[in-house]
Specification:
Layout: H1 9-22, H2 26-55, H3 64-71
Helix pairs in contact: 1-2
């Protein structure tokens, strides 16, 4: 999929510099940035949503002992 974005000149200069210093194509640098940034953003946003559900009582949490028991583990092995 091809997507176009407009970059602030200062951001584009940083991108150009990073690509040049690392010897990578700008497209490669952008691809890596998007993948890592998306991972980080998903973690932050989805984590915040889960915390909201927990605080509202809409999602249950489990203590370590409950998990050990549910999975049939021996606590002494941990």
């Amino acid at each position: 999929m091809t997507t176009s974005v407009r970059l602030d000149p200062a951001v584009e200069a940083r991108l150009d510099n990073l690509a040049q210093v690392t010897g990578r194509a700008k497209a490669t640098v952008l691809h890596e940035l998007i993948e890592q940034g998306l991972d980080d953003l998903e973690d932050a946003v989805l984590g915040a949503e889960a915390l909201k559900r927990i605080r509202e009582g809409k999602e249950k949490t489990y203590g370590l002992n409950e998990v050990i028991t549910e999975l049939g583990l021996d606590a002494s092995d941990l």
